[in-house]
Structure formats: C-alpha cells, structure tokens
Specification:
Structural class: alpha/beta
CATH architecture: 3-Layer(aba) Sandwich
Largest sheet: 6 strands, mixed
Distance between the termini: 15 Å
CATH topology: Udp-n-acetylmuramoylalanyl-d-glutamate--2,6- Diaminopimelate Ligase, Chain: A, domain 1
Number of strands: 6
Strand content: 15-25%
Oligomer: single chain
Strand order of the largest sheet: 1-5-4-3-2-6
Order of helices and strands: HEEHEHEHEHE
Helix content: 25-40%
Length: about 120
C-alpha cells in the first residue's frame, strides 16, 4: 500500500511530515506493539517497507524506528508527541501520523486493505 492510502484508510492526521517523498512510498507490511523491545527483536526483514503502529508515544519509539530504519510511524488512540519529541522526529526525517482508531481497529483495517504482517 502507498503511504497516502494507508493514511486515508485509517483516517490518520499528520503529526509530522518531514519527508514528502515517503507519502508516495509503497509499504508492504506493518508491525504493531507498545513494546519497542519486541519491535527490535521481530522486525528483521525489510524494515524500510514496514509501518510501525503503536500507542507508546515518546522518544523511545523514535529511537527504535531509527535503529530499524523504519520511516513511517502511526500512533493510535489520538496519541501525539510532545513538541520536544517532534523536534527529534524532524531531525530523523520520519513521517508520523495519529489515528483515532484503536490498535486493533488500525491493524484490522490495514490488513483488510492488503497490508501484510511481518510474518507473511
């Protein structure tokens, strides 16, 4: 799925668009967790085409995404980053969105639209 289609499907709002060309990028899978240790352990293949979905909203998520080369982060339940963390995200060049949907809803909608699990 193209990032723009992902955002539309889950009615997400941009928190930070720091890399416009990533809005046209194709993403093949998603990983959802509030445990960044799980993300580090489990996102092994093609992290650059993986969307990270989480309810954890702090700099730890940004640092994890940076280590994994994940470029798109979606926060669920209308979570937003602090201004300080948004500055960190800007320096790292992430595109970050927030949706009102729960993690379960977000994953279900995106899976139904064709975005796969990291295991498929």
């Amino acid at each position: 799925m193209i990032a723009k289609d992902i955002v539309e499907a889950i009615e997400a709002k941009p928190l930070a668009i720091f890399n416009e060309h990533l809005l046209k990028k194709e993403y093949t899978c998603a990983f959802a967790s509030d445990l960044m240790s799980d993300a580090l352990a489990l996102i092994q293949n093609s992290p650059e085409s993986t969307v990270l979905i989480t309810g954890l909203c702090n700099a730890q998520v940004l640092r994890t995404a940076e280590m994994l080369d994940v470029e798109m982060i979606i926060f669920v339940r209308n979570k937003v980053l602090s201004d300080e963390d948004l500055e960190i995200a800007k320096e790292m060049g992430f595109n970050i969105f927030s949706t009102r949907f729960t993690m379960f809803q977000t994953c279900g909608v995106l899976y139904g639209k064709g975005l796969k699990s990291i295991y498929e």
